[in-house]
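User: I'm preparing a small set of examples for a lab meeting where we compare how different chains pack in three dimensions. I only have the primary sequence for this one, and I'd like the structure in token form so I can line it up with the others. Please keep the answer compact; I'll paste it straight into my notes.
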Amino acid sequence: MTRKIGVIGMGSVGATVAHYIVSGGFADDLVLIDINEKKVKADALDFEDAMANLPTHTNIAVNDYRELADADIVISAIGKLQLQRDNPSNDRFIEYPYTQKAAASVAGKIKDSGFNGILIVITNPVDAITSIYQAVTGLPKKHVIGTGTLLDSSRMKRAVAKKLHIDPRSVAGYNLGEHGNYQFTAWSTVRVLGKPITELADKEGLDLDKIDEDARMGGFVVFRGKGYTNYAIASAAVRLANVILNDARAELPVSNYREELDSYLSYPAIVGRDGIVQQLQLDLTDEELAKLQNCANIIKEKFEESKAKDFATE
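Assistant: Understood. Below is the structure token output for the 314-residue chain.
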């Protein structure tokens, strides 16, 4: 079966996503779309020049939304990083006035293409933007997924693993809620060395508040260091894409629509070829549930402010 992926937005994140897909041989056909035609054509040629030294081949199409009609997955990586570079507050919502309009426009073109696959959203603020993409495209909610705190959970695992001198893949648990300043580590879900981390914190000298802050601010440390983030988020997005393509049915903390909260936000779900295959129910503490509700309230407020519901399909 032919695997086809579209990447919309070929900035630092989108280009890294596309490179990961090409170098890993994860798609047979790749559609690259960007408003900067010179840039996207240059990236496409660069990838084609790499083909002779890669073990797999990828067919590449450029700036043609019609090519998305039979795509399995479309990944949105549109954004305007200059807004973040000029932003001292480290607030991902600083991009929202731009990205809400850009996402609504792109979503309309995706809908017109006849695309009926799974839409992965990276664009920030990702939970509100995922809501816009779903409203405008009219795709089933289970088929529109944000990368959410898949990356934040990875940052938490990195921080815990460094303290304990182990591999981050040996840490289990989640960061939940909004991918931004309001996300939080749900320590009740975190296990390491065969035990809940809350039992080990004192013994191992772990400052959980500091680790939580490290996970929340890790992206901004990278961003302030080089002007963008790309490798970690690209790895998260491509991992999510592969889970979908392979129908892996993996448990991932991604941004998905939770009916009881009436909002997209990050919460673990089983992901497969049909998108969100099954939603999970964690046994969270009262404090964690309150934080989760706060995230939902903030995301809903921003989504309603955008008037994105004006674009919703009946």
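A couple of notes for your slides: The mean pLDDT is 93. The CA atoms of residues 2 and 151 lie 28 Å apart.

User: Perfect, thanks.
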